[in-house]
């Protein structure tokens, strides 16, 4: 039902109107999911259930957050990181709306490809911000798209304040980083990297080494336990907590 209604709304209304109306539409639809079994860490709503997508992930009916969004919010609160200047690359609409309204942070949202809601279009390999400017960086599922990831990592280190934090995530595999820049066709990239616009697939050991060489101190947060609990997190997830 949810996917059917979403398709109808997107077909009838212009995209900009859908984006502006989305919070109201979702809130109205969430009336049918009243309950206390599930709790969303993004919108802080409680529901009888989340919506199960075709890939098995659980979506919050009120804000549209996915498991990695809710895990991120949970980490930010537990680590007391939501303060100061925050740089967020290609945020989901749920996170963009939450962080824009969060007291105590100055929020810099960026989407270079202009595919997400954002206020800036920073190139992650040449970020137009001064040195030592940002307190917190969220860099989720960005670096696997960037051919010169070492340059991007150096830029992330440059704009982050000493003592600042970065939470980073990419798809991971066992073993070593695999990258081959002769692989350019979409079907081949899907085969080797998992998505047509990815240029590599990391191991968490490999990306941790690249981050460390740039100057970051890296802590690997690995969540292996079954966490399809009241917040609907992913069963397995790795987040890298990097400090300057």
Pattern of helices and strands: HHEEEEHEHEEHEEHEHEE
What oligomeric state is this? Answer: single chain
Q: Please state the overall shape, judged from the principal axes of the Cα atoms.
A: globular
The strand count comes to 12
The radius of gyration computed from the alpha-carbon positions, rounded to a whole number of angstroms, is: 18 Å
Low-pLDDT segments: none
What's this model, at a glance?
The protein has 244 residues and is α/β, with parallel strands linked by helices. 31% of the residues lie in helices and 24% in strands.
Secondary-structure map with pairings?
Elements: H1 2-12, H2 15-29, E1 34-39, E2 46-47, E3 51-52, E4 58-59, H3 67-78, E5 84-89, H4 93-100, E6 105-110, E7 134-140, H5 149-159, E8 160-169, E9 178-179, H6 186-193, E10 200-201, H7 204-214, E11 217-223, E12 237-243
Parallel strand pairs: 5-6, 5-7, 7-8
Antiparallel strand pairs: 1-2, 3-4, 8-12, 9-10, 11-12
């Amino acid at each position: 039902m949810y996917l059917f209604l979403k398709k109808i709304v997107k077909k009838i209304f212009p995209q900009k109107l859908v984006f502006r109306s989305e919070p109201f539409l979702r809130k109205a639809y969430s009336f049918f999911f009243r309950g206390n079994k599930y709790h969303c860490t993004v919108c802080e709503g409680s529901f009888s259930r989340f919506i199960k997508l075709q890939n098995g992930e659980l979506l919050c009916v009120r804000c549209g957050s996915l498991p990695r969004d809710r895990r991120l919010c949970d980490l930010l609160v537990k680590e007391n990181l939501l303060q100061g200047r925050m740089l967020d690359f290609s945020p989901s609409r749920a996170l963009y709306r939450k962080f824009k309204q969060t007291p105590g942070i100055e929020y810099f949202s960026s989407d270079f490809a202009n595919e997400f809601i954002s206020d800036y279009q920073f190139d992650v390999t040449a970020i137009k911000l001064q040195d030592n400017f940002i307190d917190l960086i969220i860099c989720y599922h960005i670096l696997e798209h960037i051919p010169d990831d070492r340059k991007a990592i150096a830029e992330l280190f440059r704009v982050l304040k000493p003592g600042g934090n970065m939470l980073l995530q990419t798809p991971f595999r066992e073993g070593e980083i695999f990258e081959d820049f002769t692989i350019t066709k979409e079907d081949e990239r899907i085969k080797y990297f998992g998505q047509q616009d990815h240029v590599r697939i990391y191991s968490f050991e490999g990306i941790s080494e690249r981050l460390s060489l740039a100057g970051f101190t890296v802590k690997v947060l690995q969540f292996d336990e079954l966490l399809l609990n009241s917040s609907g997190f992913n069963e397995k997830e790795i987040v890298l907590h990097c400090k300057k």
